[in-house]
Amino acid sequence: MSRVAEGLVDDRALRVVVISAPGASFCIGAHADLDRYSVSPDPVAALGRLRVPVICAVAGECCSVGLELLLVADIRVGTSDASFSLADPVGGVLPSWGGTQRLPRAIGTARASAMLLLGTTIDATTAEQWGLLHEVVDDLDVAVARIVDQLSQTGPLALEFAKEAVHRGSELPLRDGLRLEGDLNHQLAATEDRAEGLAAFFEKRPPDFSGR
């Protein structure tokens, strides 16, 4: 997964990435003999460097490193039977692919502490209420196809810059975040996609974005 993600970083034809898993569960955790620190770059860090939107689709159990993969996604959907946990400390280990940092940012410190320190498992409804999932769906394939179609019709550069603004801006003071947003707007204004979006609006037709 790390190698694939690294190879996609500079692929300008890429529009969206979907993470999913066959079988009844998304991920039941890491193998006991896995040395997570030996995986460099780890899959979560590699996926986090992608410019395009990342969708994660979850059914069944989503535990440990599986939850860390979920947390790096921009859009997260799950079925009603999905469950989520990051109970590594209960087993005497520490999450090492960003879980201790991304989980509190996603659901808040108190809720993340309960999941990490007490080993609390939450269901899909709770995950949606807490902001860990964006949507609970009946059919993952149908939901993912719908989201991919929507993203594919949106300007890829606008999506890229919006993603950068959200992720980088969340780590900045508000004043610097607003400056970042303004800088990205200036960059987008000079692109062909911005001109195409305006032309399509005035001509009352769907835009044909090129990613340039």
Which helices and strands, and how do they pair?
Layout lengths: L1 H7 L8 E3 L23 H6 L5 E5 L2 E3 L1 H7 L3 E5 L3 E3 L13 H9 L1 H9 L4 E2 H7 L4 E3 L2 H13 L3 H14 L4 H16 L2 H12 L9
Parallel strand pairs: 1-2, 2-4, 3-5, 4-7
Antiparallel strand pairs: 5-6
List keywords for this structure.
3-stranded mixed sheet, 10 helices, 2-enoyl-CoA Hydratase, Chain A, domain 1, 2 domains, Lyase 2-enoyl-coa Hydratase, Chain  A, domain 2, 4-stranded parallel sheet, 11% strand, alpha/beta, globular, 7 strands, 212 residues
Question: Could you explain the architecture of this structure?
Answer:
This protein has 212 residues and is α/β, with parallel strands linked by helices. It folds into 2 domains: 2-151, 2-enoyl-CoA Hydratase, Chain A, domain 1 (Alpha-Beta Complex), CATH 3.90.226; 155-203, Orthogonal Bundle (Lyase 2-enoyl-coa Hydratase, Chain  A, domain 2), CATH 1.10.12. The chain contains 10 helices and 7 strands. A 4-stranded parallel sheet has the order 1-2-4-7, sandwiched between helices. The protein has a 3-stranded mixed sheet with strand order 3-5-6. Helix 2 (43-48) links the parallel strand 1 (17-19) and strand 2 (54-58). Helix 4 packs across helix 5 (109-117) and helix 8 packs antiparallel against helix 9. 30% of the residues are buried. The model has no long low-confidence stretch (mean pLDDT 89).
Number of folding domains? 2
* Major beta sheet, strand line-up: 1-2-4-7
Structural class by secondary-structure content = alpha/beta
Q: Identify the CATH architecture of the largest domain.
A: Alpha-Beta Complex
Q: Between the first and last Cα atoms, what is the distance in angstroms? A: 28 Å
CATH homologous superfamily caption of the largest domain:
2-enoyl-CoA Hydratase, Chain A, domain 1
Which stretches are low in confidence, meaning pLDDT under 50 for 5 or more residues running? none
Tally of helical segments: 10
Number of E-state strands: 7
CATH topology of the largest domain: 2-enoyl-CoA Hydratase, Chain A, domain 1
Radius of gyration: 18 Å
**How much β-strand is present in the residues?**
5-15%
